[in-house]
């Protein structure tokens, strides 16, 4: 079995092997941590859009605030009313 057969064109095996998937943790106090963050696309006190390694994360709420960022994760505080997860395709320029 060749390396390309084992890993495939999409790199899905590598993402799983190295835990490079989106992970979201939140609690009832309004604390949310998102791992595998690649880019903060939009940010206001009612809406935050984030690009992770495998999807877009859109957060709606009130009093939303980016409290802490690191190389690959962010912490958001505020009242979250909804979260939408959308699979992200390959980067083709623009906002993707």
How does this structure look, described?
The protein has two helices and six strands, in the order ααββββββ. By secondary structure, it is mostly beta strands. The protein has a six-stranded antiparallel β-sheet with strand order 1-2-6-5-4-3, with no helix packed on it. The relative contact order is 0.19. Residues 1-5 have low confidence and may be disordered.
Features of this protein?
96 residues, mainly beta, six-stranded antiparallel beta sheet, 2 helices, 11% helix, disordered N terminus
Sequence-ordered SSE layout with sheet pairings:
Blueprint: H1 3-7, H2 12-17, E1 23-26, E2 31-35, E3 37-43, E4 47-52, E5 55-69, E6 73-87
Antiparallel strand pairs: 1-2, 2-6, 3-4, 4-5, 5-6
The helix-strand sequence is: HHEEEEEE
Residue share in helix: 10-25%
Q: Detail the poorly predicted runs.
A: 1-5
What would you call the shape?
Answer: globular
Number of strands: 6
Record the strand order, biggest sheet: 1-2-6-5-4-3
Largest sheet: 6 strands, antiparallel
Radius of gyration equals 15 Å
Proportion of residues in extended strands: over 45%
Termini, distance in Å? 34 Å
Total helical segments: 2
**Main structural class:** mainly beta
State mean pLDDT (0 to 100 scale). 80
